[in-house]
Structures are given as C-alpha cells and as structure tokens.
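Extended Data, panel c. Modelled sequence:
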Amino acid sequence: MTNQTDDPLISCLCLTRKRTQLLKRAALCFQAQTYLNRELIIVFGDDDPDTKRVVEEMGDERFVSIEVKNYSQRVLGEIRNLSIKKSNGDYFCLWKMVPGKAGVNNSFIQNNR
C-alpha cells in the first residue's frame, strides 16, 4: 500500500468471528471514512470461510486479512496483540462493529503528532 498523503497511516484493527453481516457493516463504515491514509486489519479464525469470502469479495486493497489458527481457544488480548504486530500504521485503533461508534478523527491525529 502506498502512502498518497503526508498524513500518518492509521491501522484500524477489526477482530471478528463468524459475524459476516456485522463485518460488512464495519467494512462499509471504514470505506466511508474521509481520512485517506488507513488500513483495516481483519483478524478471524481459520475455521471461518465465510469471513474470508466476505473480505475477498469486498476487494479493497486497504484490507489486510489475518487468519488465526485455534482462534476460539485464544484470549482476546493475544489476538489484539497479533493484529498490532501485523499492522503497518503509525497509529492504531480498535475498529468495533458498532454503528456510529467508529471513525478516524483527523483533528485528534494532527493535534497529537
């Protein structure tokens, strides 16, 4: 992914498990953001082919999908740490699948560099 702006890259971390409808909504919310330099890290279990299919069908080059073995046997903190390690951003945020609760705040980033 090439940086088309001077703004820092924001990695938005989305952890999901067999909730494709919510994932679609979260992905659409991500795509509607006006902050340009961002990526969506989508972490899901390797036993979740529907999530993999949804990510592939959306075809957004800003999406980074990470399949995790034994996802359901891991603790949330371990999965979050994995998503952070795989991210490329200067900053990261947790991208929750709750309508109206997600967004990249450009003014916050500019004021806290």
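The helical segments are 20-31, 49-58, 76-86, 106-111. This feature is highlighted in the accompanying rendering.
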